[in-house]
TrEMBL record:
GO molecular function, one term: chorismate synthase activity
Protein's name in the database: Chorismate synthase
Family recorded in the similarity comment: Belongs to the chorismate synthase family.
Domain of life: Eukaryota
Biological role: Catalyzes the last common step of the biosynthesis of aromatic amino acids, produced via the shikimic acid pathway.
Organism expressing this protein natively: Forsythia ovata
Pfam families the UniProt entry points to: Chorismate_synt (PF01264)
Swiss-Prot/TrEMBL GO biological process terms: amino acid biosynthetic process; aromatic amino acid family biosynthetic process
InterPro entries named in the record: Chorismate_synth, Chorismate_synth_AroC_sf, Chorismate_synthase_CS
Enzyme Commission (EC) number: 4.2.3.5
Cofactor note: Reduced FMN (FMNH(2)).
Amino acid sequence: MAWSFSTKQFPGAPFSDGSSRLGSFQPPSKLYSSSLQLPSRQSQSKRLEIQASGSTFGTYFRVTTFGESHGGGVGCVIDGCPPRLPLSEADMQVDLDRRRPGQSRITSPRKETDTCKIASGIADGQTTGSPIKVEVPNTGQRGDDYSEMSLAYRPSHADATYDFKYGVRSVQGGGRSSARETIGRVAAGAVAKKILKQYSGTEIIAYVSQAHKVVLPEDLVDHETVTLDQIESNIVRCPNPEYAEKMIAAIDAVRVRGDSVGGVVTCIVRNVPRGLGSPVFDKLEAELAKAIMSIPASNGFEVGSGFAGTFMTGSEHNDEFYMDEHGKIRTKTNRSGGIQGGISNGEIIKMRIAFKPTPTISRKQNTVTRDKHETELIVRGRHDPCVAPRAVPVVETMVALVLVDQLMAQYAQCMLFPINPALQEPLQLSEAEPVQVRL
């Protein structure tokens, strides 16, 4: 069954005898009739096929996620992955384990192993260039927890808005609005990270820099040297042990009351090739902002100095250039966050992402039923008292997906002919700079 519009030909469209309408322009109001016929069995030439939207990300490295929180499973299809990349489930499982629920008392208690299976696109341990399908089964469903939500809307969740848009929704776990959808992203992000690391030595590291009112001072983290092991050394994923304990205490204080708090995740990217991003609508920070703001519960994004830069003058904020000991152009400061003019400039990219408190809390709240009656609701189910710690690998994922897509775009447009060595640098590491791929 397809939607069908009754139409007239566009200017320039050929007549049945092969001649053209060029020169016989009609005003736009006369180009289309207003009748919409549903359903229609008109000829194929008059059918307008509408594809499902919103579940695919990327242009060259494309990722489509599928599945729902309490369905049979979730996963992704990766299209455009370069061939001959060594890849296995183990490469993805590392980050899936970092994302999964049930890790500690400050995460959702839902028990899932989140074990992934690659169903296509691999031969003899290498990518073939064909689509890669990754599947993760759901094993810890408790659909009965959501019986009350079939009648009333959870405040600040997607329940009401999904009904307003589609006229129907998946009640159990929120369906596609559940953070469980991010499993497919993380699996694809592991592939993107491996490509970036192997090709250009790019490293993406994120950590929790704020939980509720506990803020980690920026000068306590060295972005040149901070490691994944330091971040993963505690359950809140803060690289400073002292502030990690303060954050855990802040989350515990609201967790025992059935409430939740928000947090901030800082993400840095080291060894970023210069030139990623395309003016004007595809600026790198614009692509990153869209990717990051698609993560469930994210509600703020900034690059470099961000909003704090508004308190400075231009002379204070500008990143002045200089020549380093290797004869490379660098900046003395990095208030632009490694992106100038919408393009990566070879410095460390730095971002901060705000995550709001989990909308689903186990306390009585005022709401409205689906049949438009005011009521009170106590939300059941298993939820994160603070989403920031589990959001860390998801943030890394979305940054990786943007960067690998932009890397492939840069290679396609600007590396077809020899570069101008006086002004440009190769995207790939030289043979003198070997990279150990370790995820």
